[in-house]
Amino acid sequence: MAANPLSARFYTLLEREVQRFVRRPWNTFLPPMITNVLYFSVFGVILGTRIQEIQGFSYILFLLPGLVVLGAISNAFENASFSIFHGRWNEYINLNVCKRL
Description:
Elements: H1 5-23, H2 25-46, E1 53-54, E2 57-58, H3 59-89, H4 95-98
Antiparallel strand pairs: 1-2
Helix pairs in contact: 2-3
């Protein structure tokens, strides 16, 4: 039984992405942490002193889940788009793969 060429491509891409995470953890984890700290300081601490409660919850507890989700979604998008643009820049992803249909 022949090996599926799509699975080989998938595992190659998976291995490349895992290696990128392992080699550059500061580039992967530090920017989202800094962004969340800045959002939390601006919206949580500075604005939170002016807003007391929202439906029985403190403003910080109301804001915190939204900031966590914002960081997770932003990080997921940035990592995926960085891989595509980096591949195009280093020319290991063909132009035809990135074109609109």
